[in-house]
Write the structure tokens for this entry.
Amino acid sequence: MRTILSSKLTKKEFIEKVEEISGQNVFACYHCGKCSAGCPIVSEMDLLPNQVIRYVQLGLQDEVLNSKSIWMCASCYTCTVRCPKDVDLAKIMEALRVLKLRQNIDMSRVRDLPSEDLESLPPIALVSAFRKYTP
Amino acid sequence: MELAYYPGCTVKSTAKNFEISAIASAKVLDIEFIELPRWTCCGTVFSLASDDVMHQVAPIRNLLRVQEMKKDRVVTLCSMCYNTLKRSNLLVKKNKEVLDKINNYMYEEPEKYQAGVEVVHFLEVLDQDVGFEKIKQFVKKPLKGLKVVPYYGCTLLRPRDVGIDDAESPTIMEKLLKALGAEVINDPMKTECCGAYHTVERKHIIKERTYKIISSAVARGGEALVLSCPLCDYNLDKFQMDVAREHPGFHPIPVFYFTQLMALAFGLDESALGLEYNYTDPKPLLLEKNLLGAGSE
Amino acid sequence: MKRIGVFICHCGLNIAGTIDVNKVRDVIKDYPNVVHAETYVYMCSEPGQKLMRDRIKEFNLDGVVVANCSPTLHEKTFRNAAAAAGLNPYRVEIANIREQVSWPHEHEPETATKKAIRIIQATIERLKSNASLLPLKVPLTRKALVIGGGIAGMQAALDIADGGYEVYLVEKSPTIGGRMAQLSETFPTLDCPQCIMTPKMTAVSQHPNIHLYTYSEVEEVNGFVGNFDVTIKKKASYVDYDKCLGCGECAKICPKKVPNEFDRNLSIRKAIYRPFDQAVPSVYTIDMENCLKCKVCMRKCEPKAINFDQTDEYIDVKVGAIIVATGFDLMPMEHFKEYGGGEYPDVIDAIQFERLLAASGPTGGEVLRPSDKKVPKDVVFIQCAGSRDPNLGVAYCSRICCMYVAKQALLYKHAVPDGQAYVFYIDIRSNGKGYEEFVQRVMEEDRVLYLRGKVSKVIEENGVVKVYGSDTLTGRSIEVDADLVVLAPAMLPSAGIRELASKLRITTDEYGWLKEAHLKLRPLETMTPGIYIAGVAQFPKDITDTVSQASGAAGKVLALFSKEQIEHEPIVATVDHTICAGCGFCEAACAYGAIKVNPKTKKAEVNETLCEGCAACSAACPSGAAQVQNFRKDQILDMVEILARDY
């Protein structure tokens, strides 16, 4: 299947929204792949971190918002600190998560956890998970 | 010296050992932690969305409490609290519009937050206010023969404008542990992420990270991991037995908060260490090194 | 001046599209003392210039105003044209009605037209009191100084010397040869650099016109183009180079071991040393910082060449031109913290790997890794280490790394056929002659694996160097258990370049690369006349371009030396001694040291050859004694009167 690009179809509003929320220029990324190389959770991801930005650059909104990758991100900021172009990828990941969550979608499955698990989890783990996975 | 102290939720529950040992060892250094009145959870993570002001309220409200105490500095133990409070603070220092929005939202508060508070981590206080040379003088029981691997995780060092030391090769914990007399082993995995909040729904990620990080420390001769974050501690300590079952040959090691080793080196009583809260039992190792129990002078 | 001609250029639509040039002409032709005014579509063209020459003769013009673009572009063109028609060139002035009128006021044609008329009138007023000036003639010394004895410096020196002029070649290390001497083979021809370069080194040392000063630096430079006074500091080597036979007995017996810079610290040299075997001159030097002063070498030296009482020597020379060819260094390994640079012995930089590949290197040409001298079977090359990295390194591309990594990977595969080489890259830049074919050959025939992705971290564990990179083409993160990692670090200017540039009064850019006068059209000249640049000192480039630039710079010097005298613009400062009070404000204002108060007469005096006519002295002078020819205060006030007329 070919991806069709044109001035009418390229999702300008989507890209602009991502840039607004993240405060980053997504076109500054030149896909060197250093972020993907250093990401600790990359083996759980379907799209590599640098591919996530590429999808945004091409305006492939549905694919990237439905990817696993943005939820696998652990917000460890390793990518942010190593990027040669000073692109804060952690902020872009958050912007994508937030665009999905603000559709009032709950990405957390805490309700399914057994109660012993929930009791032993420290508050720091639960609160941070809720912050990232719930609207 | 009195310091405004923000504890955060977890040191009051599963990470009591962190707080107990921190307060006790601070006292030896003549530092008193004054806990903020009516503090709340800081939110644990800094919200990265630039249009999200709501999630900045919680950290800023806590800094307002510091301002109300007429203090201009607040110290934290937990790396994640440090990161969240510091980044929120920097945001409102740079962006007056956001500060005004937050102050307006907190209209019931008698004061407005002036963005004049500084957020520091306890390690910074030890480095800059006390100095590691001075700390040596308080060491009654040097941690001789104890091979420790400092582990920083993510939020203490990244991003660069809030890191307490160099993001790739930090040395602040090494200096402290050396001053305490321990044998410090450098492990390049010390800045690798523990998996953070994936511990809630995706434990397999945490076990994978535990395996990698602990194995690396052990491969370099480490006998104990030393860290500063209750989430890293939970992730890297609690599942070591599970990891050992899945990976034969995996060698579990105890995980300490740096304040526990401080309290130990300062010769404080075992009750000040909170060792009962550690998941992997550290007592066998400490006994072996003659750092615990009778006859351990 | 009574017979002024005004030429108004259309500049196509650049001027005429906004300004009503015909109206301008009609107004100006009636202006007092104007005998002729006309418009033309492109004044700077051949026909345009001919038009001006013809009209000067036809109307016997004694002054010309050209209303066109900025004088920086064509002032010289029209002055030359006037001179060709027999009119003193300094009776030609430019009225800029493009950059200052038609371009900024593109959407206000009426205003633009009015402004153009006013500017031309003001220029006419100023022109009226212009003096006829003649360019100053300055004698020149036809000798050159070349700073830097690498391939660029040597080539430039040889070209100038072959042209028949004397050259002083100053090199700060004990030998010439530079970086090229450290390489194992050069891309894409795979020549041995020592083989192709040693003839040049010998030619330099034997050329009757070249005075070679090794282990020397430029201490001080004064003067101006054609007349530079240079002091060369010959550092004390504690060895009489004329007596030393290069036998090496001293080094054999010297007890002090020092890391060998030539092998980039992969081997040891002694405190008394010769950088490499084909060094020119082939003599030994004592590195006094590391010398134990035990003097065993002195006792062993048969020709009695060693002299511990030697001191630095200062030699004064006069030259007419200077070429700066100081080369480069690589970003230090300690910078690459996430790669373990400076920490892991098996993470090395490109020049270190060259030394491992080189037959004259510390391992005799066998590829053995530094930690345990084992033959590495998996070698990872990391391109763009520090380059193209505005966040943590330098923003620019270092240009040669893609090519030399391909070359090094090929040489590695030839040396270790059952080994595997991996190259982590972002892009491949192979834009020279034969370069693309070379890289493709390395991929297709030598089966070097090219992975498109940058490495994020390198960790050494139990002798294995783990490399964490990515391959963006398959979308996979990659882990390589390597034996050796070679970085291609960013190129940086040589140490000390800013101090040298400041001595020469030339500029560098933010990174320290020497600044050229114009990036496209004048890449070998600096803004300081008489000082030229060549080679990597200007910006990273390969050997081909370096040699080309060196010969180019030499060509500029030869052109300069072919003049009988140097001409200097006569738009210089003058001082009216009847008014001058000797206050010295002019001296403080002058950036060129061209105006000084004579302590005996207490009057300011101008050194016309140093003066650049900037008029800072005139602005600073409280009494009006200092004025610049054809830029006098009264002329400027005449212009102001016209320009301010409506206000």
Notes: DSSP finds twelve helices and eight strands in chain B. The radius of gyration of chain B is 19 Å.
